[in-house]
Amino acid sequence: MRYNKIRKMDIADGPGIRVSIFMQGCTFNCKNCFNQETHDFSGGKEFTDDTIKEVLNLCDNDTIKGLSILGGEPLHPNNIEGTTKLAKEFKEKFPNKNLWMWTGFSFDKDLKDKEVLNYVDVLVDGQYKDELHDPKLKWKGSSNQRVIDVPKSLKEEKIIITE
Ligand code: SF4
């Protein structure tokens, strides 16, 4: 598994000042994807336990409100194991910080039984659809995407939209 980049202070991908990591590799090929350099699974850098340590060290700071995991596709079968490990270790170490994740997969159709959801606070799901693009949307690129409160949705067994 590989990742594209880490941002030490990100104010665009989720609320507050955050650390973000962009995983490498995506097969969705959404028209006018904002992040085409993340599609090739052989691009970027190797994702290792040291990468997880680096991300957790960057989060270990009171000004950092949470971690954002984007891509690429963090939940592609090639990437989901490493993403789950990072998400689990983040929530164990920082139970009071939040974890946001962006995926082209669907919460209810593809992800409901995946372990990773136990560690995610907010999931922005669904492929980017260029014809539904609206620059006024918060946290998402197209109106079909959903900003989901994951703990509430799992508890109530239905999708609860937040923000
Ligand atoms: S899922 Fe995300 S990274 Fe993948 S092609 Fe679509 S917009 Fe780009």
Describe the oligomeric state of these chains in a short phrase. single chain
Largest sheet: 7 strands, mixed
CATH topology: TIM Barrel
What is the CATH class designation? Answer: Alpha Beta
Poorly predicted regions are none
Termini, distance in Å? 31 Å
Cα radius of gyration in angstroms:
15 Å
Tally the helices.
Answer: 4
H-E string? EEEHEHEHEEH
The CATH architecture is Alpha-Beta Barrel
Mean pLDDT: 97
Structural class: alpha/beta
Strand order of the largest sheet: 3-1-2-4-5-6-7
**CATH superfamily name?**
Aldolase class I
The hetero compounds bound to this protein are:
iron/sulfur cluster
Overall 3D form: globular
Helix content: 10-25%
Explain what the structure shows.
- With 163 residues, this protein is an alpha/beta fold.
- It has a single domain, classed as TIM Barrel (Alpha-Beta Barrel), CATH 3.20.20.
- The protein is 23% helix and 21% strand.
- The protein contains four helices and seven strands.
- The mean pLDDT is 97.
- Residues 26, 28-30, 33, 35, 38, 71-73, 104, 127-128 line the site of iron/sulfur cluster (SF4).
Give the topology, please.
Blueprint: E1 2-10, E2 18-23, E3 45-46, H1 49-59, E4 66-70, H2 80-93, E5 98-102, H3 107-111, E6 122-125, E7 146-149, H4 150-156
The site of iron/sulfur cluster has 13 residues, from loops.
Which terms summarize this structure?
TIM Barrel; binds iron/sulfur cluster; single chain; 163 residues; seven-stranded mixed beta sheet; 7 strands; 21% strand; 23% helix; 4 helices; alpha/beta; globular
Please sum up the structure shown.
This protein is of the alpha/beta class and 163 residues long. It has 4 helices and 7 strands, in the order E-E-E-H-E-H-E-H-E-E-H. The protein is 23% helix and 21% strand.
